[in-house]
Design goal:
protein biosynthesis, six-stranded antiparallel beta barrel, 18 helices, six-stranded mixed beta sheet, alpha+beta, Elongation Factor Tu (Ef-tu), domain 3, globular, 4 domains, Rossmann fold, hydrolase, HBS1-like_N_sf, Transl_B-barrel_sf
Length: 619
């Protein structure tokens, strides 16, 4: 799957002057929903639901006769006569501008609103199609075929036999019930899905190993591999041919280093696997965290060559840091692929040496021994990846599974389907046609096209025009928690949606806060953490400056009981309750409510210093 990098956090997007045909600036007041983030925030502890529609301005009621005529037309000729009969006075408008405005509105809202409603919105905002679309999506008035509208009509209108379009939907209890039913059906009839991230020290051979696995699985054609072999040979990097399956950009190929998270997909006998190849270089740890935060399971790749394992496992190496990161982000199942063992003639002694050191470390990191499997492989030769090992030097002492067999046996987690809809945006770009296209992962609930959502922390309402599952589900009309998806959103200013934004249930939005209370476990750190300590918070695709505002208490690592109240500092190995303050609002959930959105990490000086879970959202 191609990666999109058009729009990233803290980067501007340049608009062509002629895009806005009416000369209306995006900054004027288009698309800014009324109210502030605070209005949309809510507290679960209050036991009250917040209905965002209550903050939207109500408009004048449309005459019943107009709604009646718009709902049902006895013939297309009658419809045309009605539309040109002057139900809405548009004589003062420029007809060319009116037609252009109506075309934009139809493209955004489809057939869910009548011609008369669209004309009325155009007239109300003097052919500013952006404001007109925003009004139709956000106003208290319903589409012309909604139940609320029908109930206001005379009996004769209700009894007319006419076809109506599918109404817009909000994420209510009925849709959540539908999502639960759809999830249960897929669990029975389809393979279970898992998201797998490949991690490890730089130059451990992650991309080459997984590129060769994809080739052996039939995901990549022999012709393409031959092309990569010829191209890589020209620049003196013949061994990089399989790595280029995942390293797609010119800079990655020229430098021979993975820089961004590459996505792909393959199937095993019992699983549909979304593959994420994460960068190993320490300069790209933020990108690695983005991939790891979406993962259910992980493959840790270790280079077995002389000195290579020691470089990754020692101080400053990414083997330790990556393992700690994925565990702190919720990954509990791990396959350790000991790569490049063929360069040592499949030395059993070297394999056991690596296994013993990693087993002790991973146990301290929180992995259960039963959830970790060690597999000797050769990514370059393709040995023991998708089929049992055949090299006599290896089969003489290794009788275990191949890497694909280990992946096939990973347990798929239970998804929070019944929880309100949450979609974390990882990338934003302009697709074909109008609207905003976003890629990311659905963390909870489910959604289908035609549903209204709210974008946080901008508090902007919009309409989901289309959905597309990136995980190969047969029914892409409905995407569920755990799936990577691409959504097209209408009615929202593209400048209001960035990586880190969350699309959510319109009646139950996620909170956007700048202060949180969290329980943290401190890793290796040279200086103690004190009040006012500067850190960088990493959460999904968000990385924001923050400070430790307060150290509330030091906790017992096993029981969680308070050991010391208001300690002056915390250091390596300590477990503590702290208050973190950010510079900008971030959308999180309490860990007890939704663990997928309740974890984050803290980094300082280029190293990960703490794993954290959200215990309370403050403000």
């Amino acid at each position: 799957m191609a990666r999109h990098r058009n729009i990233r956090n803290n980067k501007s997007y340049d608009y062509d002057d002629d895009y806005d045909v009416y000369g209306q600036s995006y900054e004027d007041d288009y698309g800014v929903s009324p109210g502030t983030i605070a209005q949309y925030s809510y507290s679960r502890s209050s036991g009250k639901d917040v209905n965002i529609s209550s903050y939207m301005p109500s408009e004048d009621t449309v005459e019943e006769e107009v709604w009646e005529d718009d709902l049902c037309f006895e013939s297309s000729a009658a419809a045309q006569r009605h539309r040109s009969s002057g139900s809405v006075d548009t004589s003062s408008l420029n007809p060319i501008m009116l037609d252009a405005c109506l075309d934009h509105i139809r493209d955004a809202v489809g057939e869910n609103y009548s011609e008369n409603q669209m004309r009325q919105a155009s007239a109300k905002f003097n052919c500013n199609y952006e404001k007109a679309i925003d009004f139709l999506l956000n106003s208290s008035g319903q589409p012309s075929n909604s139940k609320n509208t029908t109930s206001r009509l005379p009996d004769k209108a209700k009894n007319k036999d006419c076809a109506t379009a599918t109404p817009h939907r909000t994420l209510g209890s009925n849709q959540r019930n539908t999502a639960v039913a759809e999830y249960a059906k897929r669990e029975k009839e389809e393979k279970k899905q898992i998201s797998l991230v490949v991690i490890g020290h730089v130059d451990a051979g992650k991309s080459t190993m997984m590129g060769h696995l994809l080739y052996q699985q039939g995901v990549v054609s022999k012709r393409l591999i031959h092309k990569y072999e010829q191209e890589s040979k020209k620049i003196g990097k013949t061994s990089f041919a399989y790595a280029w399956v995942l390293d797609e950009t010119g800079e990655e190929r020229s430098r021979g280093v993975t820089m961004d998270v590459a996505h792909n997909r393959f199937e095993t006998e019992h699983r549909i696997v979304t593959l994420m190849d994460a960068p190993g270089h320490r300069d790209f740890i933020p990108n690695m965290i983005t991939g790891a935060s979406e993962a259910d399971v992980a493959v840790l790749v270790i280079g077995a060559s002389t000195g290579e394992f020691e470089a990754g496992f020692g101080i400053g190496g990414q083997t330790r840091e990556h393992a700690l990161l994925v565990r702190s982000l919720g990954v509990s199942q791990l396959a350790v692929a000991v790569n490049k063992l063929d360069t040592l003639n499949w030395c059993q002694k070297r394999f056991k040496e690596i296994l013993e050191k990693m087993r002790q470390f991973l146990k301290q990191a929180g992995f259960k021994e039963s959830d970790v499997t060690y597999v000797p492989v050769s990514g370059l030769l393709g040995e023991n990846l998708t089929a049992k090992a055949t090299a006599s030097e290896l089969t003489s002492w290794y009788k275990g599974p191949s890497l694909i067999e280990v992946i096939d046996k990973f347990r798929a987690p239970q998804r929070p389907i019944a929880f309100p809809f949450r979609f974390c945006v990882n990338d934003v770009f302009r697709g074909q046609g109008s609207g905003i296209t976003m890629s990311g992962k659905i963390e909870s609930g489910g959604i289908c096209h035609g549903t209204k959502v709210v974008v946080m922390p901008a508090a902007e309402r919009g309409l989901i025009k289309s959905v597309d599952s990136n995980d190969g589900q047969s029914n892409s009309e409905f995407v569920l928690a755990g799936e990577h998806a691409t959504l097209t959103l209408h009615g929202v200013d593209i400048m209001k949606v960035t990586t880190g934004s969350v699309l959510c249930d319109i009646d139950n939005p996620i909170r956007a806060v700048t202060r949180i209370q969290a329980r943290i476990i401190v890793f290796s750190i040279e200086v103690p953490i004190t009040r006012g300590f500067p850190v960088e918070l990493h959460y999904k695709s968000v990385h924001e400056p923050a400070i430790i505002r307060r150290i509330i208490s030091q906790l017992h690592r096993s029981t969680g009981e308070v050991v010391t109240k208001k300690p002056k500092f915390i250091s390596k190995g300590h477990n503590a309750l702290v208050e973190v303050e950010l510079t900008r609002p971030v959308c999180l959930e309490e860990y007890s409510s939704l663990k997928e959105l309740g974890r984050f990490t803290l980094r300082y000086g280029g190293s990960t210093i703490a794993a954290c879970v959200v215990t309370k959202l403050l403000q």
